[in-house]
């Protein structure tokens, strides 16, 4: 599956320098290529380019990569790619233009406030959460799931419509935006919140009423902000290591088989530095303790991007959890519901280890293993790069709304919860 190969990470093939100096406002005329070839050829191209510019941005795996080429190195890049028989496809001629188009114009954001035709910085996302919770004070509450290195709060929204006396609804937790550059995740999550609260579709209002929702649009707000204002391709947190390098991959930092697969122990690794120890990052430490304090946690769903995949635990083993068949059945229903919206086919459901690659220290695995949470899923949302067009956020948002509906319906069918007595009193 070619798009799977697009899926971005890998510590082996990445420029490991923290001196990544590309700034969003310095991307003018940078070209964005998809490259494909055999491992040694790709490696040669990468090293050749890194020799010319130590901050050359190469994000890839064994057979393919996305590379972002400064204008003065474009001809050198094309020449070496040709010589090495590496196939380079130009995806974006000027990536700065793409990044500019992702953000709201000042005029538009002043006029319309928060919307789903542009990507917003973390403060605006938080303002949205606060505004919507004031609009629905009986149903919602602003919640704090943890803290960040730079002193932000990990803010979310609890949606818990009134239930019959003594009824405790199952909790549905949504973790989104753990990887800073995957902007479609927070945008989709706020879209979904908005659907839950404003839709008059009876399926959606029922879904809203079935659960005690804890929804966190961006659990790595420091990283997201940095990606928004400085380096669009930032993935990690923003903590400073003892050697001065910045950030750890928050999806390698959880205390489950920490540091084993697809993890780097080099603090300067641009992508998958696992941190100095499990839960070294204040974000994962505080968020995991918040999650541990939740009684009755039934669903844990994480949103990433991209490549259209549905992943199940565990991410670093092909062994199946005891209710694996149920997870597959529930996941399939979710994908069928989603398919009706855009006819987009997701791969999976299957273990992350079988569908994608082995990766250790991820949130989903810890939540499943440490807390024994019954229904745990990771979605890689749509796209073939980190740049999902802003005007198509609603498309992704509608699909995710249906996918969540599919999850709930099939889980109820399989007897994971009974909701009739607990539905909203209205
Ligand atoms: O590598 C990851 O963390 C995820 N892919 S991404 O391209 N968005 O970075 C996959 C996550 C799979 N699940 C876990 N590793 N827990
Ligand atoms: Zn991710």
Textual characterization of the structure:
The chain is α/β, with parallel strands linked by helices and 426 residues long. It has 2 domains: 24-101, Metallocarboxypeptidase-like (Alpha-Beta Plaits); 106-413, Zn peptidases (Aminopeptidase, 3-Layer(aba) Sandwich). Helices cover 36% and strands 17% of the residues. The chain is built from 14 helices and 12 strands. It has helices at 2-6, 39-52, 74-83, 95-102, 106-112, 122-135, 184-198, 202-210, 221-229, 282-292, 324-342, 352-355, 363-371, 393-413; strands at residues 31-36, 57-60, 64-69, 87-92, 140-147, 153-159, 171-176, 212-216, 297-305, 309-312, 347-351, 375-381. The strands form 2 sheets. The chain has an 8-stranded mixed β-sheet with strand order 5-6-8-7-9-12-10-11, sandwiched between helices. It has a 4-stranded antiparallel β-sheet with strand order 2-3-1-4, with helices on one face. The longest helix has 21 residues, at 393-413. The chain is globular and about 70 Å long. It binds N~2~-sulfamoyl-L-arginine (0X9) and zinc ion (ZN). The site of N~2~-sulfamoyl-L-arginine has 17 residues, from helix 13 and strand 12. Residues 7-9, 179, 182, 251, 304, 311, 315, 352, 356, 359, 362, 364-365, 378, 380 line the site of N~2~-sulfamoyl-L-arginine.
